[in-house]
Amino acid sequence: MRRASIFASTVLVLALGLAGCSGGKDNGNGGGNGNGQGNGNGASESPAGSGSPASSGSASPSPEDGGAKQEVVAIKYVIPGTEPKEWPAVREAVNQKLLEDGVNVRIEKEYIDWGAWEQKINLKLSTNEDFDLFHVMNDLVGLANYAGRGALKDISKEIEQYGPNLRKVIPDSVWSGVTKEGKVYGVPAYWYESAIDGSITINKYLLDKAGYTAPIESRDQLLEAMEQVNSKLGMKLTIPLRGGTAGPADIFQRTYDSYPFTVRDNVAYIASDGVVKNWVETEEFKQDAAWFRTAYQKKLINPDVLTVKQEQIDDQIKYGKYVFMLGTPGKLSDVKKTYPDATDAGFELIRLNPDKPHYRMVNAKNINVVAANSKHPAEAVKFLNWLYASQDNYDLFMYGIEGKTYNKVGEKGLESIMDPGTNMPLYIQDDWMIGNLNFIRVNDDYLSANKALYKADTEAQNFYAADFFFDPSNVKAEMANVQAVFTSDVSPIYRGVVDYDKNIKSALGKLKAAGIDKVLAEYQKQLDAYKATLKP
């Protein structure tokens, strides 16, 4: 990822390739780009939401169907996070507006606790539960994984018939990240400048307090800075990140001579020369693992990194409880709850090796998909098409009822109205999850390091494989087995919990037994075919 997965009064509309985020999981308007490391802000823990995907029994004329009366169909959108207090009121306002606009859809949302997200969404899919839309974070469990399991509907026909606004507000380069051989597996969230991926937020406020004044230019300095802050200030801060299914730390990629490269599905290393390798066998993996091992042994990583709950990571990020974090931060007002005299200048966004070119590595990181078992794919697309039809529709679903859950600030600014009991917005739908840069509003309370998400990087380039979408259908069983081994055996090595030298041989053996060679061969075959379609 990622809010973060989920945030500047003015947002630039970018005509560029995009990679969206998981990370920054925030019920406070999107702080943080997602890369699977838990970067972003805001707590997101939730009970299941209300509503079921049954017909409401009423009818309305639908412009998409020539004005004929249509049965109003309820669709269920399943997402990670906590249900905001005012969602029931907002839901009714949204559904009334849908009815007034002649769209025969009633939207329901089911929120799933972050800690149970992967388990519960997999259970819903495996038991063919009746629901319609759900959210995919490519930096956690990717689109290819779900598509390979047969968990997604191809919605190409529905988009052709009911999605003109989707095509209008989402660039072709972003659509390519969800399209394979004419099949469209989801609607990407075009919400941020993806060249920002690989950035690091530095807590200069704490560094200054601890007397660490040297510019941070290497990965070793990151750990030195943490040790000095913890020692001088009597703190026990750790790096806010998770293990498990979370992918590689893209902040380090710029430090290698092999840059640019990308890693897909946690196992496929795609080099700039078009060669696909086993990521776990690369020197880059080994060096990353060595850094994490050092950090873990120095107690700069949570000892429970493999099982830590997302809401704990979100709390660290939201309130600035870090020396550095992977990705972008949150609100100044939240940080001030920890450090009352902190200022915007106390949080700086940096890159290692900043003089190297900036790349957009993937063009669709956050995606909303239609479940294979959905009985209402057309209605799901109609809803998304309605959402992106106007600023009014977007504001209503994303931010709620003006004057009750939010106030507009300037042309594209936003001030959420907070619940005094929880200090959380009364309502917000995270922009990182379903937002669009043509409509997004940004809370001016967000740190400048966060607002960089919405600024066009005019020097950025698209990595040649940014649009490449791997279809694992031919290696479905092998891919599932490989991902299981990654979680059980590879992630503990990568995150430094166990020693690389003592455990890598066993992990590689298990990957081979799981079928990684077949997976990588299929990756290479599809990448070669993709490259053949590129213009010279």
TrEMBL record:
InterPro entries according to UniProt: Bact_solute-bd_prot1, DUF3502, SBP
Region (Disordered): 27-67
Residue ranges occupied by any DUF3502 domain in the UniProt entry: 466-532
Start-end of Gly residues biased regions: 27-41
Keyword set includes Methyltransferase: no
The organism's place on the tree of life at top rank: Bacteria
Pfam families reported in the protein's UniProt record: DUF3502 (PF12010), SBP_bac_1 (PF01547)
Keywords, comma-separated and alphabetical: Signal
Bias-annotated ranges (Low complexity): 42-65
Signal peptide: 1-24
Protein name per its UniProtKB record: Extracellular solute-binding protein
